[in-house]
Amino acid sequence: MSIPPLAPILTAEELRSFSAFLYERTGMTFGETKRYYIERRLLDRVNRSGAGTVVAYLARLRHDSAEQERIVSACTVNETYFFRETQQLQALSNALLPKIANSREPGDRIRIWSVPCSTGEEPYSIAIWLLENWPLVDAYNVEIVGSDVDLQALAAAREGRFGSRALSRLPEKLVSDYFEPAARGAKRIIGDLRESVTFTAANLVDAASIRSHGRFDVIFCRNVLIYFDNASRALAAHNLHDALTPGGYLCLGHSESMGRLDGRFAAVRMDDATVYQRA
Question: Domain extents for the chain?
Answer without folding.
Answer: 12-76, 86-278
